[in-house]
């Protein structure tokens, strides 16, 4: 299905439901830690939080209570990763022979069958209700319905089988896996750089005056410091150094005469570009508020670099001439392609960004956190597999509820 961005109006509609689900998910993931530190694997915690909080937004209330679905949403991406690692050293022409014998492939096939058994009846039921033109029928407002509507708008006529497969890929790879990685990286960066916690905590408190449970898309959008920190964390540890992978289907002649033959594998070096000194000042310095729009936020940790005039709002400056619209976590530019580029950019990035902010807002405001082992101010090393960058999956942390929170 051709990508189409999920618009901000749709995101605004579902965020209250995400917050509602997160409230119960947090109670399950971080129970009774007011007076004592509890030991948590953050990657496992975030996977569960994402799966629980987004399931209702994907296809209604029935998913959030389906434990088998939650397990599939949490583990399918792991099986995909294992399969890639095991098949990568094998020549392409031999992979179809070896793949069926891999335990991870058998698990994926079983999970796909489960997803189809789950979603196909939903899709058929919804289409029958729409075709019947029952005046009392109201279309659900969830991702499954949006995909069905997009399919009809584009005359792609995707069958229930294909739509069910798309839903599995969307939930497990595009939502659960990538969000878990981003949250883990961001939390590790926060613990390693504790000077950012105070300013972020102040911003969360200020932008959510009615309490975390009343968070909306509009209030989360006001969290420019957190948005900037997310973008800088992603710049240093993106999902992959390369993205936008494509295989040439017919010869392409570039402007300099170079011809890309059929079957050529092309991609963008998104990681190196985002760290290129030609586009960014001090590219190898982690500057969590680098992308803030207001000088008061940009220089909150280093007021001496701004001067009183700027801090008092006399003027605003964006680094290297960047416009405000290009400096958001979800912005797509030719130097920030971690969400893709052009019409093929990630269609759910606005929803993902709001979900990440909602989770991090709660953690920053309501909890204290630290590594179980003293790493001497260092960050747990990433796991680099080819061009893919993963956070440490084994690192454990300690959490404790703060006395005062929302």
From TrEMBL:
InterPro entries: Cyt_P450, Cyt_P450_E_grp-IV, Cyt_P450_sf. The keyword Heme applies. Heme binds at residue 346. GO terms for biological process: mycotoxin biosynthetic process. The keyword Metal-binding applies. SUPFAM superfamilies: Cytochrome P450. Its cofactor is heme. GO terms for molecular function: heme binding; iron ion binding; monooxygenase activity; oxidoreductase activity, acting on paired donors, with incorporation or reduction of molecular oxygen. Keywords: Heme, Iron, Metal-binding, Oxidoreductase. PANTHER family: CYTOCHROME P450, P450, PUTATIVE (EUROFUNG)-RELATED. Belongs to the cytochrome P450 family. This is Cytochrome P450 monooxygenase. It comes from Penicillium coprophilum. The lineage of its organism: Eukaryota, Fungi, Dikarya, Ascomycota, Pezizomycotina.
């Amino acid at each position: 299905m051709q990508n189409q961005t999920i618009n901000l109006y749709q995101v605004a509609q579902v965020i209250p439901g995400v917050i509602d689900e997160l409230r119960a998910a947090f109670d399950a993931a971080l129970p009774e830690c007011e007076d004592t530190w509890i030991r948590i694997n953050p990657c496992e915690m975030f996977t569960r939080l994402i799966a629980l909080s987004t399931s209702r937004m994907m296809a209604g209330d029935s998913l959030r209570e389906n434990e088998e679905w939650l397990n599939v949403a949490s583990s399918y991406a792991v099986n995909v990763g294992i399969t890639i690692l095991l098949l990568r050293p094998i020549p392409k022409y031999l992979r179809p022979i070896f793949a069926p014998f891999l335990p991870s492939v058998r698990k994926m096939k079983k999970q796909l069958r489960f997803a189809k058994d789950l979603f196909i009846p939903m899709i058929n039921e919804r289409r029958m209700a729409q075709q019947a033109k029952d005046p009392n029928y109201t279309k659900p407002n969830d991702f499954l319905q949006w995909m069905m509507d997009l399919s009809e708008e584009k005359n792609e006529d995707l069958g229930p089988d294909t739509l069910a497969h798309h839903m599995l890929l969307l939930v497990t790879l595009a939502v659960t896996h990538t969000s878990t990685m981003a949250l883990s990286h961001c939390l590790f960066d926060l613990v390693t750089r504790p000077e950012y916690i105070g300013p972020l905590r102040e911003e969360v408190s200020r932008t959510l005056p009615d309490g975390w449970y009343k968070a909306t898309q509009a209030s989360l959008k006001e969290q420019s410091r957190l948005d900037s920190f997310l973008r800088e964390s992603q710049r240093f540890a993106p999902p992959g150094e390369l993205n936008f992978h494509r295989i040439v289907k017919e010869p392409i002649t570039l402007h300099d005469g170079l011809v890309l033959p059929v079957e050529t594998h092309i991609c963008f070096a998104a990681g190196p570009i985002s760290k290129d000194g030609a586009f960014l000042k001090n590219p190898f310095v982690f500057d969590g508020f680098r992308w803030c729009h207001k000088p008061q936020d940009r220089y909150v940790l280093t007021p001496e670099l701004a001067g009183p005039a700027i801090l008092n709002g006399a003027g605003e400056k964006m680094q290297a001439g960047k416009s405000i619209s290009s400096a958001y976590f979800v912005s797509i530019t030719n130097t920030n392609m971690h969400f893709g580029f052009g019409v093929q950019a990630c269609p759910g990035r606005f929803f993902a960004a709001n979900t990440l902010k909602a989770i991090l807002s709660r953690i920053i405001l309501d909890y204290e956190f630290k590594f179980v082992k003293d790493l001497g101010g260092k960050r747990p090393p990433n796991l680099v597999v080819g061009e893919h960058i993963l956070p440490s999956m084994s690192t454990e942390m300690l959490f404790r509820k703060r006395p005062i929170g929302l």
